[in-house]
Amino acid sequence: MKQGxxxxxxKGVVWTALQRYSTMLIQFVSGIILARLLTPYDYGCIxxxxxxxxxxxxxxxxxxxxxxxxxKAPTQTDYSxxxxxxxxxxxxxxxxxxxxxxxxxxxxxxPQLSDILRVQGIVLFIYAFNIVQRNQLQKKLxxxxxxxxxxxxSITALSVTVVMAYKGFGVWSLVAQNILTAAIPxxxxxxxxxxxxxxxxxxxxxxxxxxxxxxMFLTHLLNQFGQQIQGLLIGRFYNASTMGYYSKANSTERxxxxxxxxxxxQVTYPLYAEVQDDKVALGDMIKxxxxxxxxxxxxxxxxxxxxxxxxxxxxxxxxxxxSVPYFQVLCxxxxxxxxxxxxxxxxxxxxxxxxxxxxxxxxxxxxxxFVIAGLLFYGMPGLLVGMVLNTWFxxxxxxxxxxxxxxxRWQKQLLDIMPVMMASLAxxxxxxxxxxxxxxxxxxxxxxxLIIFLVIYGAWSVLMHPxxxxxxxxxxxxxxxxxxxxxxxx
Length: 490
Description:
mainly alpha, 2 domains
């Protein structure tokens, strides 16, 4: 990797990590506070509508965001064309949501959902208005601005949501949170980036970007549908409270499983695009990111699986105890989910959008079959097992695509993460067995398991000095230096 690119990567990782972990902390605090003010029913109502909102947002992006980043020198005409296309499409999609909202409410047998969907649909206009400016900042690797705006947005939205929940607005406080989370960055980026669309729409530019973006759009659409299908099924065959328990388990698990990978991939996609012609450098980058992510995420998921019950009781109260078994199963899926985007984005960066679409169709068709078959034969537990199989199947397809098109062999990928997997599994097994033998109270048991796991995993890292540990240390250096500088300044 070139020196200038490496410096951009380091700065990008530092600022993206700051944004991601600050946002995680805010979401964590938000989850704790709102779980005490709102009910599983409130969360369930929002969860039932998520699939419709995410699919509509996928249509607006249409893959053009990725196409603009992937294109090395987009013009003002390119940006203006995509801006007006997105704005026009958002009007059409909102009209569709508005007209179909009563039918969706009848599908779930919850009349209130009609009004909720119509109000929350405003997010579509905001997202369309904001997408070009956000992509310009991302393409320039200006993660400092993106990070600061995201942090400020999260704090502001949380404050308003908590006040509304405390005042008894219920599910509408969550609707307000979603709208504010979209609106604040849109306003800030509009004045900060200072880009303005020209009154021009070029069909040539549209077709050029559409050539790459169309398959990215279809891929993203299939991914969103495949990831949200379980919410649609739970909402249809169970009640809103069950959907709420699932939503809380899923959001908590995703907060952990994507904590590292989102930091890395937000920075690495533009970097992948810059080195897309150098397969050796690209493969080496994927390897280091994969091993760094697995070194942190794998032990985290095993710890959460072990300590799920005391964690949920402590954070969310006994009201959310029914979420615990859902959460534990989802943690197994989280092991694979944490690594999916690392491979997925590398294939996108080299321009293989059509290949990605074809294999995404295969992944999602098989994955949906797993989920539906699990639900039909074993109910809710079967649906969750189907989700685990879906996630791992998608991961194996992703690493095979990287193996074929980039040259980082799938066998080598599995061998690279195997030491971390085995060390995490061994530490988790010993922690669990010790807890079983001691038979301690809930919180003491959770603390004992946590300490034993960390001691075993830490000892393995220091004594064996595996490659994943070394890559993690290299990635952590910028943060350590930043902390030391702050201490010196004080």
